[in-house]
Design a protein that fits this description.
CATH class of one domain: Alpha Beta
CATH superfamily of one domain: Glycoside hydrolase/deacetylase
Structural class: alpha/beta
Number of helices: 25
Number of strands: 12
CATH architecture of one domain: Alpha-Beta Barrel
Length: 671
């Protein structure tokens, strides 16, 4: 019977829903706490501590209340078979209904029923999610239990470590120190009996226990800091006892174990610990006369000893050097300047500089090694997107239809370039039937292990296209490409804007980006835009005319141009970010790129670039830089977008060679 209760499916499902709801509940609590702390920035540390502690308690109470509420509803549903049957019938009825048609034609012909169907669709989505989550919840709960067990085991290890501290290699301090300690207890109105010992195991003073608290002070501390400094540290520990911080800290650790998966819980908990230490600091300064500088120096010395010993205190401890030490010292010294600005501003500033120097000395060795290691291992990164596959078939030299694609794919695989090919649906289908030979080029790309993404079914400007029509164009492309990927159980992940144009206005741009995210796509912000397509067009013309000499000249000019463009964008990168960020390069899958692949990729490699997957390149923090480029029928590099967003002048771009430009202009004139 007990095991049946433990593995009760209803209980597991309720736990799963509780965990899911806790994500937004605790995030909301953290947001409110963040706002409250901003308002209380100049209030007493104890006030901020109490508010933070209340937020932590609420982070525990709300999910518990949710679980109780869900359990109550589950009990009622189980006790009323009629309700259960009705709900089940409704679900089956919904499953029997035909799925909504999301074809492009439907989306382009919206009727007055849209508003009515919207709420029905939302309800269907909610119900569908509920059904799927019920299946998924046992796995979620299992992972949660595993995490709880792991963190609980770590907590037990900390408790065992404290037991060792309490019972091994402890000694009674001298009579003089026992008298000073008793005087401190009396001064701070400590009603409990507190045991005061020195220890050879610990490297920083700490409090252990609540009902029978014990303060442990490292034996070395008695020799390394003066008596007045040690008194301030002991006062700090006694104030923790007076405030009952130890049991609060244990409860705090319990909440961290239960909600280990939520970063907001860790942030709230860290805030509680920080404000608690600040509140104790304030109490020390208020209780002991003229103790600000002495106490600040004592904290800095303790941290230096701890760093040298490389000892980390268990998280359930309350210790004098807990929290963000530099901020605490700064607060203490600022309090001193506020109280006696006229006669102690200079000495407080000097003390802060000296203490900062001590702390910098403590941390500089490890920090320096870390920074240097980063510099030594840093490499330039580049990801490449090809727009669009299959290649434009301008070749009339009699070569095989798929020859360009085969050469390019071979070069990419030989040089281990994890490129993405963005499919132009109209190149492989008329919307109803596939063009087998062209569709097979997409399969060749896929089977070579290269990523496949999409643009639009037709290569159209977002600037000139209504939002619904633009979405319909992407959906139509999705319908064409998805089945090809499904043959190998692959998913579409990336979208490339045709012409790199992101719309006529910011509203449409943001709306479409949100639509992409909802469908599981990530758009590509290309930093390395270029006019390769112009060179490719001229190269194809030369090959068509059997003009080998001109073709080779165009190829050489193209490689020179791409080298200059790389330097151009590297200059942007260093100007804006002070480093070489991961570049995202856009190319067409042309015969020129295929024939010059070894030389082109060699240029990048000689400049120190490694070719990486797109997701690795986009993980660079630079891509979080805001930009709002719209309102122009153009597509430009994201470097230029970022530059314009900051109100800075654009750099002069390397020019396309005169002959290539002339070839392109002549073609436009003929059209």
């Amino acid at each position: 019977m007990i095991w049946q209760e433990i593995f009760n499916l209803t209980l597991v499902e309720n736990l799963g829903w509780t965990l899911l709801h806790s994500v937004w509940q605790i995030a909301l609590i953290a947001l409110v706490l963040f706002s409250a702390l901003k308002i209380l920035a100049k209030s007493a540390a104890n006030s901020r501590y109490l508010v933070s502690l209340f937020a932590l308690v609420l982070s525990f109470a709300l999910p518990v209340a949710t679980f109780v509420w869900l359990s109550g509803n589950s009990t009622q549903a189980t006790q009323n078979p009629a309700n259960f049957s009705a709900d089940k019938t409704a679900i089956l009825d919904r499953r029997a209904q035909p799925n909504e048609d999301f074809s492009s034609d439907k989306n382009l012909k919206l009727t007055d029923t849209k508003d009515k169907n919207f709420f029905v669709s939302i309800e269907n989505l909610q119900n569908g999610f509920a059904e799927k989550f019920s299946v998924f919840s046992p796995l979620l709960v299992g992972l949660w239990l595993f995490g709880v067990a792991f963190f609980a085991f770590r907590f037990v290890g900390s408790v065992w470590q404290l037991r060792i501290y309490k019972t091994r290699e402890i000694y009674t301090p001298s009579n003089d120190w026992q008298e000073k300690f008793a005087h401190l207890c009396e001064k701070l109105k400590i009603k409990q009996s507190v045991k005061f010992v020195q220890s050879k195991l610990v490297e920083t003073p700490m409090v252990i226990g609540w009902l029978k608290p014990i303060i442990l002070v490292p034996t070395s501390v008695f020799l390394q800091i003066n008596a007045r400094e040690l008194e301030t540290i002991l006062a700090h520990e006694l104030i923790h006892i007076r405030r009952y911080d130890y049991p609060v800290n244990i409860a705090q650790s319990f909440i961290e174990i239960l909600f280990f998966y939520h970063p907001c819980v860790w942030w709230i908990s860290a805030t509680v610990r920080r404000e608690r230490e600040c509140a104790c600091d304030d109490a020390v300064v208020q209780t002991l006369e003229n103790a600000q500088l002495i106490y600040a120096n004592a904290l800095a010395n303790l941290e230096e000893f701890r760093q040298m010993a490389k000892q980390t205190a268990p998280p359930i401890l309350v210790a004098a050097n807990g929290g963000k030490l530099m901020l605490r010292i700064q607060r203490i010294l600022q309090k001193n300047t506020e109280i006696k600005r006229a006669n102690s501003a200079w000495s407080a500033g000097l003390a802060f500089v000296l203490i900062s120097a001590v702390l910098l000395g403590v941390f500089s060795f490890n920090s320096g090694m870390f920074v240097n290691a980063q510099k030594k291992t840093a490499t330039k990164k580049m990801a490449i997107g090809f727009v669009s596959i299959p290649p434009n078939f301008r070749d009339k030299t009699g070569d095989k239809f798929d020859e360009t694609a085969r050469i390019l794919i071979q070069k990419l695989t030989e040089r281990k370039v994890p490129a993405i090919g963005f499919v132009l649906g109209a190149g492989i289908s008329d919307g109803e039937k596939m063009f087998p030979a062209r569709a097979n080029i997409v399969r060749m790309w896929r089977d070579a292990g290269l990523e496949v993404g999409i643009g639009g079914f037709k290569h159209i400007w977002f600037y000139d296209t209504k939002f619904d029509d633009y979405v319909a164009n992407v959906l139509k492309n999705e319908e064409v490409v998805k089945p090809i990927l499904a043959e190998k159980n692959l998913q579409l992940r990336y979208f490339s804007y045709p012409f790199l144009n992101t719309g006529k206005d910011l509203e449409s741009k943001v709306k479409f980006e949100n639509w992409l995210i909802a469908r599981g796509y990530k758009s590509i912000p290309y930093t390395f835009d270029n006019q390769e397509w112009m060179y490719s067009f001229a190269y194809d013309k030369a090959r068509e005319n059997r003009d080998t000499e001109t073709a080779q000249k165009i190829k050489a000019e193209f490689l020179d141009y791409m080298g200059k463009m790389l330097a151009h964008y590297e200059a942007y990168s260093n100007e804006m970010f002070g480093r070489d960020i991961a570049q995202t390069l856009v190319l067409t899958p042309s015969r020129l790129v295929a024939d010059s692949a070894d030389e082109l990729f060699g240029i990048f490699e000689k400049r120190g670039y490694n070719f990486v997957p797109m997701d690795e390149a986009l993980s660079d923090e630079a891509y979080k830089t805001p930009e709002n480029f719209t309102g122009v029928k153009a597509g430009i590099s994201w470097f230029e977008r970022w530059q314009m967003a900051q109100g800075k002048k654009l750099r002069d771009e390397p020019k396309v060679s005169a002959e290539v430009w002339k070839t392109w202009e002549e073609t436009k004139t003929k059209k």
